[in-house]
Amino acid sequence: xSGNRPQKPATKLVHAxxxxxxxxxxxxxPVLHASTILFESLAELEQAGASKPGxxxxxxxxxxxxxxxxxxxxxxxxxxxxxCVSSGVAAITNTILALVKPGDHxxxxxxxYFPTRNLCDTFLKKFGVETQYYDxxxxxxxxxxxxxxxxxxxxxxxxxLTFEMQDIPAIAKAAHARGxxxxxxxxxxxxxxxxxxxxxxxxxxxxxxxxxxxxxxxMMGTITTATEEDLLTCKKQVVLSGDAIGPDDCYLxxxxxxxxxxxxxxxxxxxxxxxxxxxxxxxxxRVLHPGLPDDPGHAxxxxxxxxxxxxxxxxxxxxxxxxxxxxxxxMDLFGMGFSWGGFESLILPSDPKKIRTATKWDxxxxxxxxxxxxxDTDDLIADLEAGFERLKTA
Length: 394
What we know:
Distance between the termini: 58 Å
Mean pLDDT: 93
Low-confidence stretches: none
Radius of gyration: 22 Å
């Protein structure tokens, strides 16, 4: 981007990571397919370094198609640089592995995305890294959990399934006082609704599969760091793991990125409308959405975020399994499936009791996660209303 004038996120979304003048004025960056990269001389070959971000050395290490996407995401998040990898889980795995060694201790929010927990409880445990889960609402009191061998604190705000908000600035202050890095899964908010580095985060991770891509057709993860040192550390791990993402997927993510702002505004508006409607339903015990004024995390959300995405949960009053099946099996507009962030609405029953270890999820009703897509909200409400009616007939 040219000039030194500050630009707002909506403008950055359109212009970041394009470099049209380098590609004959073409608006969208070209898709460059490559495995082998040729070098002009022995000296050039010997200077090539796979761990150097932005350097074209081999197809697996990236081409300008990927580098321009990384440039755009880094600019949007306000970080030093970004690495794009093959999935959100790949981003989580590579980032954590880049920072730990046998004998280390890490702190992970109890509300974390399940694959993060699975990595910690299986792979990391096998190689001598100890994971301690903590209450997501702990804030600055996390200082009491930090040990001499603690190397990172993993945050996710709001949390998966149960949507607790974390006081990231307080956690970062406590962690940095002991030389501990703070990592944040920023998928729910994307770079548009939350600025991780303004809150003291060292590394921001996203499943680009969700809102960046926005069309439910690409798997992608992003790793954005505050410093060059951390970027190089993560890059070395990504190269070591053999992870790679194809240029066609990067191109599709670039296209999705351009409409991220307008899509998130619609997700925000529609999600809050339906969340408020659910609060008035007799079948609903509780709605878990930080954008609602009576949500326990609302004050933190209002302080640290500029909006909400379309993902939230609600808890039904106790029902039977046949009632649940009768509701979710016959939705017209809400599809039932994993992932989220696309243009389509989704519904997914879940049970946090099965995965919590540091905190107790004591709601006795069924938790249902919704992703509110871009459909008309009146149609979505009618679909949910019909589902509630089916609860009575099972």
